[in-house]
Amino acid sequence: MVRIDPEVREVLVGPHRLGGFLGVPEEARGLVIFAHGSGSSRFSPRNDFVARALRRAGLATLLFDLLTPEEGEDRRKVFDIPLLAGRLLEAAAWARRLPGLGALPLGLFGASTGAAAALMAAAERPAEVAAVVSRGGRPDLAGAALARVEAPTLLIVGGFDGVVLERNELARRQMHCTVELRIVPGAGHLFEEPGTLEQVVALARDWFLRWLPAAAEG
Question: Domain residues for 16?
Answer without folding.
Answer: 8-217
